[in-house]
Design a protein that fits this description.
Helix content: 25-40%
Strand order of the largest sheet: 3-2-1-4-5-6-10
Largest sheet: 7 strands, parallel
Number of domains: 1
Number of strands: 11
Order of helices and strands: EHEEHEHEHEEHEEHEHEHHH
Mean pLDDT: 97
Low-confidence stretches: none
CATH class: Alpha Beta
Bound molecules: NADP nicotinamide-adenine-dinucleotide phosphate
Strand content: 15-25%
Shape: globular
Length: 300
Amino acid sequence: MRRAIVLGGTGVVGRAVAAWLRPRGWRVDLVARTPREPFPDVLVADRYDPAALRAVVGGGADLLVDCLCYTAAHASALLPLLTDVGAAVVLSARAVYVDDAGHHVNSDEPVSFAHPVTEQQPTVAASGGDDFQSRCGYAACKVAAEQVLLDSGLPVSVLRASKIHGAGSARPVSEVFVARALAGNAVLRLAHPGYADHLTAAANVAQLVDLVAAAPGARILNVADADVPSRAAAAGAVAAHLGHHWKVRDDPGGDQPSWGQPRPMVLDTAAARRLGFRPQRFARTIGTEIDWLAAAARSR
Ligand SMILES: NC(=O)c1ccc[n+]([C@@H]2O[C@H](COP(=O)([O-])OP(=O)(O)OC[C@H]3O[C@@H](n4cnc5c(N)ncnc54)[C@H](OP(=O)(O)O)[C@@H]3O)[C@@H](O)[C@H]2O)c1
């Protein structure tokens, strides 16, 4: 049986990777610091403790997915362990890209890209520091990590995702809509319903991880959904999934989802598609997150 290890495995990406690979015949070991429901069999280890990392990865695997590589130092710690790994995938983010004015998605000013963004788009300058938890440092540290990985010559695929949705998300994109629908609201007052974004279903990430496992290589790949939903369209998808009906009212003082811009940043996924990636649409994938949020609300 092929074996995959996911570092940071009980989050939104790890859950989706396990859900995708296990029915396809993989053993998937999820690594986190704390076992929690529904993951009683988690491998408990701190990704940033070199001995613990060696203990979980040192035995080798067919596939390693790292959701916790944020800096050049994190990448460097991983490299010696990849010699016995068939394919490695490291999560990165669209936040690395800069537009013509030098803005990125975490800038104070909105980004403006005239075209879908390919992997060749300029990025912020790399920073070898460890300031990855700040708005400013996140992308610079990610770029440095990517460079260490790709310069190694090892078969590491870097996946640049947009905002990821799915079960286990720390900041669910559908949260406000699910709460309103479960509350039975007949009217949804929504700020800027036409604002849109190109989001990334964790299930689409998992599909691409599977393709990379079958074709290991050193590369960067954008990963995102098949469509770019507006806030109104996303609200409609949530309502439809929950069998709810409401009237959406354009109200600048209404609910303000944490995503959506007048001019959305679109990721070009042609490189991933050349590997066979066939992303699903937002409305086809958001149900996983909705069901998880609804179950959590019910258990409260
Ligand atoms: N989520 C997004 O919207 C998004 C967008 C673009 C890119 N990304 C990239 O995706 C990756 C994050 O994946 P995710 O969103 O799935 O993460 P996540 O939902 O935040 O989950 C993080 C996971 O890592 C575990 N963890 C945290 N610190 C750990 C440590 N020191 N050692 C071992 N496990 C640890 C957590 O469980 P415990 O706390 O129990 O350890 C949890 O299972 C990052 O590389 C990020 O840059 C995410």
